[in-house]
Amino acid sequence: MERRPNFLIIQADQLTARALAAYGNRIVKAPNIDRLARNGVVFERAYCNYPLCAPSRFSMLAGRLASRIGAYDNGAEFPASVPTFAHYLRILGYQTCLAGKMHFIGPDQLHGFEERLTTDIYPSDFNWTANWDDASSDSTGGRLLAAAGEAQGVRAAGIYERTVQLDFDDEVAFRAVRKIHDHARGDDQRPFCLFVSFTHPHDPFAIPRRYWDRYRHEDIDLPKVPALARDRLDPHSQRLYDHIAVAAAGLTEAQVKLARHAYYGAISYIDDRIGDLLTALDTAGLSQETVVVFLSDHGEALGERGLWFKRSFFEPAMRIPLIFNAPQRFAARRCNRTVSLVDLFPTLIDLADPQSNNGAIATGTDGHSLRALLLGQTHAWPNLAFAEMTCEGTSAPCLMVVEGSLKYIHCETDPPLLYDLDADPFERENLAGHPAHAESLRQLHDRLERTWNVAALTQAVVDSQRRRRIVDRANAVGTVTTWDYAGRAPSHDRYFRPSPVNPSASNYNDDFQVRLRPDTARPARRTYPP
């Protein structure tokens, strides 16, 4: 029987698919991502299921739409009782390990990963809970300190040699590389699933000069859809415009170009870290037995329509890169079927246990295994993606259905939006009022109503927010505890100390060969001379 594959899943943060050569960009320099795409399966129509960090990640890990697990916003708990693909992979005999950002909210900071190599970059409590009860929020669902006026930060884009984000991602890459080598020299023969999650190219758009200088400033492009006046935006975009304070930012064309330059530099930085991981796989001798998956949690508006960041259903914030690279298993190809992040869960389980045809998943998912698409079999694919927003920036659930080339956006407080993405890839013309598209609109709305009970969802969101705000206030009184993952202390047994296996604490074993680890007599592998 074929050995079960290892999985190396690499996640960027806030990376729009349009910023990569594999999706048509001719400016960004990311040779390692390009190599993954050139030799892998590129999903051209991959969507996140929630354009915001924490709910998107929880949904992806659980294979469920975020609202079905109570992941309503960036301050919503990811319940420990919800199985993730890490839980199922452990049951199937995998080592499961997480390095980097996952934005877990709540006391469970592992969610099926048996090991976590780093802490997180953002808080794990209810501090970022939205507030739809706040009548003073102008129907924007509460203005969180972490998000209010954020567009003004775009003005600060530029060259920075050190940031907290760089410190974090440097550590994530270092520990993940070492983990790959630890697996190769370890005694645990189980296959591994290593999830490496970076925080770049998420704003702030701040990057060292060596990455800035990979681009000529005159080559940086401007948004395809220029900034629109507020009164020309749809109602949800107007709320987002107000929430992130686009008017107050008053961004000039030069400032927009600076931000895009820094964003592209951040992608090159992440590409270098991906190169570190791929080199580690090669040097550890693990490349042939590892499926590498590259993706993002959601996209980035990057100035399109004058909007920034996420919390929008337009393509720049919704469309993500999704690349599977395993040339020994899947021929290089491009797939134009509509897929989404909830499909990752059943895909990993299917690849790990193909004989069961996902019969091992006892708790159900909202996604479908991509294995048939990876093998070039496209005839039975449903070609659907669903997304939702129940966070700050709105006061009612915003819902999206994509079927084929048609995208339908619904919110009880707003007029409907309908776009034909093949004919209108930049979503300039709303077809919802056109008689020729009335039947398509009706069918998509029916599908939406079969997927969500909007009234019940609205009440569930408000109830959850109220409960979390009470807990958050209480937890700030008296002795303050934290759910943040602290990680284990640097291990003294990683380096040379006296032990029964190595009583002299020597670098060498009894044959004067370089030790593989301090706790074993096995020699390290030498590649030259042979």
Give the strand order, joined by hyphens, for the main sheet: 4-3-6-1-8-9-2-10
Helix content: 25-40%
For the termini, the CA-CA separation is 32 Å
Rg (C-alpha, Å): 24 Å
Judging from the principal axes of the Cα atoms, what is the shape?
Answer: globular
Query: Which residue ranges are poorly predicted, with pLDDT under 50 across at least 5 consecutive positions?
Result: 136-143
- Strand content range: 5-15%
Q: What can you see in these coordinates?
A:
With 530 residues, the protein is an alpha/beta fold. It has helices at 31-38, 53-62, 85-91, 164-185, 209-212, 235-243, 246-249, 253-283, 315-318, 344-352, 371-374, 438-451, 454-475, and strands at 6-12, 41-47, 95-100, 115-116, 158-159, 192-197, 206-207, 290-296, 322-325, 333-340, 384-389, 398-403, 406-411, 417-420. It has an eight-stranded mixed β-sheet, with helices on both faces. Helix 4 (164-185) runs parallel beside helix 8 (253-283). The radius of gyration is 24 Å and the shape is globular. The protein starts with 5 loop residues before the first strand and ends in a 55-residue tail after the last helix. Mean pLDDT is 92; it is low at 136-143.
